[in-house]
Amino acid sequence: MCTVTYIPHKDKIFLASNRDEKHSRADAIAPKAYEFSTGKIFFPKDAQANGTWIALHENGNAMVLLNGGFQKHEPVYPYRKSRGLIFLDIMDSDWMLDKYKTISLENIEPFTLVMYRDGELYECRWDGKQKYIEEKDITVPHIWSSVTLYDNETIAKRKLWFEEFIQKNAQPQMDDIFHFHHFGGEGDEVNDIRMNRNGVLYTVSVTGIELDSEKAFLKYIDLKNEQSYTSSFNFSTSPTH
């Protein structure tokens, strides 16, 4: 996995993620709230490893995972813990960046995290040896593509598609963003935003989070089983379907 976009619009922001997975991987469990030490965290669960790739905390923090750091790597199994579970360890905090700085990532496969809280956006990469942190401009849109699936040329091409989408959608809403995550590209199933590599590896779901200072809306489309889920909540209350 995957493809992630961040789009600011007026007093809110959108985070969206395409999850690209092998057909053989167990179906994910639809998003719901789970109790953690710092409060409720809302996310779709990977039924195979019990982790996740995108989550929203009731405190208003949001985070998304991409596999890989800066370049494609050769896995060296076994790893100490799955990236999806490490993700939840980091998410279960008042501020994910502080947790990322202190958590041990020894023998954890490389990954990238996109972290957001009100007024702050960070890209954090773990290359298997060292942690990297880069603050991103929250006032402009961003796109990330997993280095484990896409080479540099394809990543650059996908960035151009995203920029063209932004130019044509000056005031995007969730439906517009989901349209890009479904149909962005140039008709090449191997590398389009919604990808399919011979039915073996393909985009299995699209998740979108809409956030402002008081409330959140989450939309999840299970492409594999053709089902959709939505949920909204205020940060002072629990998620409701």
Furnish the topology, listing elements before pairings.
Elements: E1 3-9, E2 12-22, E3 29-36, E4 39-45, E5 54-57, E6 62-67, H1 83-91, H2 96-102, E7 111-117, E8 120-126, E9 131-135, E10 142-145, H3 152-168, H4 174-183, E11 196-197, E12 201-211, E13 215-222, E14 227-234
Antiparallel strand pairs: 1-2, 1-10, 2-12, 3-4, 4-5, 5-6, 6-7, 7-8, 8-9, 11-12, 12-13, 13-14
Sequence of secondary-structure elements: EEEEEEHHEEEEHHEEEE
Instruction: Examine the secondary-structure arrangement and name the CATH architecture.
Output: 4-Layer Sandwich
Overall tally of structural domains:
1
What can be said about the biggest beta sheet? Answer: 7 strands, antiparallel
Alpha carbon gap, first and last residue? 27 Å
> Share of helix among residues?
10-25%
Radius of gyration: 17 Å
Question: CATH superfamily, called what?
Answer: Penicillin V Acylase, Chain A
Structural class: alpha+beta
**Low-pLDDT segments, ≥5 res:** none
What top-tier CATH class fits best?
Answer: Alpha Beta
- Discrete helix count: 4
Average residue pLDDT? 96
Number of strands: 14
Beta percentage is 35-45%
The CATH topology comes to Penicillin V Acylase, Chain A
Shape: globular
What would your notes on this structure say?
With 241 residues, the protein is an alpha+beta fold. The chain has a single domain (3-234), classed as Penicillin V Acylase, Chain A, CATH 3.60.60.10. Helices cover 18% and strands 39% of the residues. It contains four helices and 14 strands. It has helices at 83-91, 96-102, 152-168, 174-183; strands at residues 3-9, 12-22, 29-36, 39-45, 54-57, 62-67, 111-117, 120-126, 131-135, 142-145, 196-197, 201-211, 215-222, 227-234. The strands form two sheets. Strands 1, 2, 10, 11, 12, 13 and 14 form a seven-stranded antiparallel sheet that branches. Strands 3-4-5-6-7-8-9 form a seven-stranded antiparallel sheet, covered by helices on one side. The longest helix has 17 residues, at 152-168. The protein is globular. The chain starts with a strand and ends in a 7-residue tail after the last strand. The model has no long low-confidence stretch (mean pLDDT 96).
